[in-house]
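Sequence and fold:
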Amino acid sequence: MSIRKLQTLPVEYLWDGLVLKDDIFNHTGAVLLLRKGETITRAKLDKLMRFYGDSRNIMVYEDTYLEIVSDEHVPIETRREITERRTGYTRLQQNVGGLFHRKDYEQWLNDEQMAPLMREVAGKLQDFDPVMILSCINFPRPMDEGLQRHCLNVAFLNGMQAGWLSLPPEDVNMLVLAGLLHDIGKTMIPEDILNAPRRLTEEELAVMRRHPVYSDELLQGKFDDNIRMAARHHHEKLTGQGYPDGITGDAIGLYARITAISDIYDAMVSARSYKGAKLPLDVFDMFYEEQFEGLDRKLVMNFLKNMRSEYINRQVIMSDGGRGTIRYIPINDADHPIIRQGDDIRQTDDEWYCKEILPVI
């Protein structure tokens, strides 16, 4: 018989009208406060708030915790904060941001200074469920944290891809480091262009497209050439229509090809002022349909195969507010997965679709 674990939950995550599907205990887990089947009322909430003062924590079983924090009554920003805090993502992105806001590149931009951060990111890939990390990547992000979050996300995605390709540990670490540094050149771009709340003009776009060159210049002589070339070439295309060098085929190294996929995925699931975020399943379809030209097709298909595998049996919130479980994701129609709701199993459509993939909190 398995032992059910208790999880700390702030009282403010409860709401008036919530029907408890399990018992609720005090902050130590020793005292039963409310029984399964009871309905939370405003009076009960006020009593709990007064009793616990500033701490305001209670204990619930883990499955109850997930059910409560994933409900629409709990703001998505709160769910993001919970997931990021639990994985250590919050601290990692702050560390990346702290580096990127420093201008003394000669002091910190080297292998020795970056190695601990690289190892910590790689370690998270071993310690946590991949979908928990993907949840941190997929959540809406504050606009002012765009660059540091993007680089951290690409580092995670690069590490995942390296693992799926069965590359040796040294390559996993190097690809994580390539992800962390791939956009370091953007620190040389004027902030009014980098953080423009709109689509860039042609002139601004030309300035922005210099960032791979700046990355190369900043990394030169300090890091392995594979890392430097991943930074310079992750916007190149196998067809020769990329930038900054317009190279083709084998001239684009493996690290750059992997980083290109990670870079695009993160860009597509992130919300910007001029575009909405896309659900991962929608992005899978875009990759499959080759809407992003010039990528390595074998790497793309390996990425999609493993991403689909990670999301099987994950819980989702549906457009009707109900919850379901992903049972199958068609390779050629990923945005219409097969969902189980109770005893009902059916494919999504334009009227009934996945609204959010729930994190493994």
In short: The two ends are 23 Å apart (CA to CA).
